[in-house]
Write a structure and sequence with these properties.
By secondary structure, the protein is an alpha+beta fold. Helices cover 45% and strands 18% of the residues. The chain is built from six helices and three strands; from the N terminus they run ααβββαααα.
Length: 140
Amino acid sequence: MKKEFDFFNDHSEQYLEMAFCSDYFETLSAPDGYGRNTGDCGDTVEIFLCVNRDRVSEISFRIDGCINTRACANTIAHMVKGKTTGHAWGLTPQDIINYLQTLPQDSHHCAELACGALYRALANFKTNIREPWKKNYIFR
């Protein structure tokens, strides 16, 4: 007989912490980079970055999605804050999956979704360096 899944006892400590953390769940008012990604499942992740001397000084996110997507977005914020933009570009969905340890197999796309939003925020940051006037139109 197959054991019934017990959410709190069968998930890793890292997964539970990232699934319920609210430290990064906000909108930054004047981000240097913004990225939004919507998956085939309908979940949406928005990432906001502030960068100072090529380090991510602030990061936040908003999601419209499931708890697995929230855990992945929190993991990105946890892994990227204070690091260089080069380090952030190197973050992969597999890094998120490995950190969380118990992200369900059928939710690995949540890590891809969150990483996609991060990459878009980083690309937007690069664009805003080359063309600073565009930063004024991030949310338009």
